[in-house]
Structure prediction request, 439 residues.
Amino acid sequence: MALKLIRASRTLTTRAARSAAVPFPRLLTTQALQVEDSFFKGAVVSQQGDLEVHWSSGHVDHIDSSWASHQCCCSGCLQAGSGQRVLVPPDNLIDDTLVGVTYDQDHLYLEWANHSHATTLAVQDLERSLAQCSVPRVCPQAAHTLRQHDFTAINTDEFALLQWLDSLARDGAALVNAAPKTVPTSFNGQEADEEGYDYGVISLANQISQPQPTIYGHTFDVRTTETPINIAYSNVALDLHQDLVYYESPPGLQFLQAIEYPTSVQGGESILMDGFVVAERLRTSYPDAFTTLTQIPMVFEKVHYERALPVHLVSKKPLIRLNDEQEIVDVVWAPPFEGVLPLMAPSESRKYFQAYRTFASLIRESNDLLVVHRLDEGQVLCFNNRRMFHGRRAFELQDGAVRHLKGVYVNIDEFASRHAALGHRYGTFQHGMVYGNGQ
Prediction:
């Protein structure tokens, strides 16, 4: 649909705010939604019985009456304050003939032949909904360097926070400098440990929402142990992978803060690669292999009973997942956590593992996509675990040295929400961002 929207001068509000007829302060004033300087001009009932909406650009949209009845935003259908539906299907679905429409600058009022309820449509809802049909995706671009941000600025300046989130949204990774090992609890207003202090990475997570708990706790420590419950807790090299893919919804952001990392430690550099970019390369260069990896799933598992908290996590999913427009919305790569695959017909098995080897070889050969960085003490490596493959080089500890990284995860949808809300507030939000949350 070639839609030309939205007025930059319109202040976007939530449906909850509109149902209460109260403006939503500060949030969402933006020019980012503007496709062309076009605005709602009027509406009529077409000869076919659907809703015919006219825009000042001359564009006309035809909207089915069933869709329209489902979107009613009157106070009888939406609860003031929460914006949640009071009437739910099938009670809010009108199976009737549309016979009339009136409108003002902000709303359309639909009349039905045999139903007394007049459906109220917000012009802004029409604009936002129709815009989804025409907004191009912001395709991931491989970042060759990591943008750097200041810890104190992120925690004290909302726009600096937004700039950090922008780096994570656009590049998939960023660095935060000068992070203290611990900060007073009052610094972020969250619960503390018994000393009244939190780790710096927890403070960063709290700027988005809160740490995402996993089988490793609310935070985790990456350091060498004699009997590691995870390969990361040793000194061996880690090939590119993603964490916790055996979850139905793996963690989104991952923050790794260098607590102890003296210069005497040889090696241990962090490595990153944009999984969405390399998957697009696979589609371009090896389309058959790409298609196979979208159709046949892999099994990922963490089955480990000999630990303090025994776990049995198994997830079956394709390595690459597409949406209805054939755009990549999910990429999964974690060979260390692959489980036992169901038996396949020999022809299917050969086809799958040929495609698998092709993808694995492409990852290994894409050195131009590789980002390598050795963390300094006080630096935090931040990256999108749903988009970026990560790993590290092997390292050697000498003279009692310790390499200690403090880690935390953040839910992917809470990151996308925080970035979108701040972006709308400051007029920088761009529709079509690829967060790796399956959208």
Q: What stands out?
A: The longest strand covers residues 253-260.
